[in-house]
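Can you give me the bound-state structure? Components:
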Amino acid sequence: MLSYIYMDNKDEQIHIANILQGDSSAYRFLVEKNKKIIYSMALRILNSPQDAEDAAQESFIRAYNQLHTFKQQAKFSTWLCTITYRICVSRLKKPFYESRGMDDDALENYQDSADTPYKEMSDKEREVFIKKAIHKLPPIDALLITLYYYNDNSVGELAQITGLTASNIKIKLFRARKILEQNLKFLM
Amino acid sequence: MKDDQLKKFIQSIHLDEPAASFTDDTMKIIAAQEELELHPSLLPFIEPEVLSEPGDAFSGKVMASIQPAKNKTAAPIITRKFILILSCAAFLALLFAVILSPSNSNEARDSTYLLHVNTSLQEPTLELIKMAGTVLPYFIPFSILLLVDYFFRTRREQLHFEE
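Here's the bound-state model for the whole set.
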C-alpha cells in the first residue's frame, strides 16, 4: 500500500515537472486522477450537478495556472481540494455552515429504503443507501467524511482545506461517524 | 461498528462522477489558454467549446487606444474666439488711449464735443487709467505669451497633419 502511494506520488511529481516545463498535455493525468474527488466535493458543497461540474472545472484550471506556486511538500490533491473548497464556498449564496443537508423529499426516499431488509438489497441499492446516509449529514460533515475516507486526508490536511481548526474537525468527524454508525448499523 | 468497518462501507460506494467529457473540456480550455497566452483573470469568460473572435478592427482599436500619447498634439491654451476678444479689447484700449492722450486733448480744445466728453469722463477715466497702469505691465506680457502659445501650437498641428 505504501509503495503504491509512493509510486502514485512519484508519477504525480513527474507529471507536474513536465507541465512546468511546458507540456500542458501532462495535466490530463492529474485531471483524470482527481476529477471524481473534486467533483464529489463540489457536489457536497453546491448540491447541484451543473454547478459542481463548473466549479470542478474552474478548480482544475485555476490549479493549472497557479501550478508554479505549488510546493510539493503537500499532496497535489490536498492543494487542489483547498482551491476547490474556496471556489465552491465563494459560489454559495449563503454561508456553507448554514446550508442544510438532505431535503424532505430525499429524506422520505431514505426512510423508504430503510424499510427494505438488507439481504434483499442489491449492491446498487446498498450503494444508494450509504450515499443517502452520507447526504443526510450536515454538508460540512459529509464533505469531511468524503475527504477523510476517500481521499485519505489527515485531520491536518482537512484543516488546511477547510480552514477549520483540527479540534473542530475531530469533533465533526466524531459526530458524523456516530450518525453514520447509527444509520448503517443494520447493514452489519 | 468499528471505524475500519465504516471506512470499508463508505469506500464500497462509488464517488459521484462528472460528465464523460469533463477531462476533454478542461484540457480544451487549458490548450486554448496556452495557445493564446491569456491572462488567468480572463478565464471565466472563455467558453469551453468555442472561442469567440473579435471583429477585424479590434486590433486597430486596441492599438489606437494604447498609442495615442505618441501622436497626440496638445491643443492651444486659448481658442480663436478668445484671440478675437483679446484683439477687440486691445483695439478699444488703444482707441481710448489715443482719445485721452494729452497731445490729442490739445487739438481737441477747439471741439466742443470732445471737450464735453473729456470733462464728463475725466474723473472715472483717470481712475481707470490708474488701475490699468498697475494691471497692464502684467496683462500685456501674459497676453503675448498666450498668443505665442496659440500660434506655436497651431503651427505644430499643421505640420503634424502635413506629415
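A couple of observations. The mean pLDDT of chain B is 70. Chain B touches chain A through 30 residues (CB under 8 Å).
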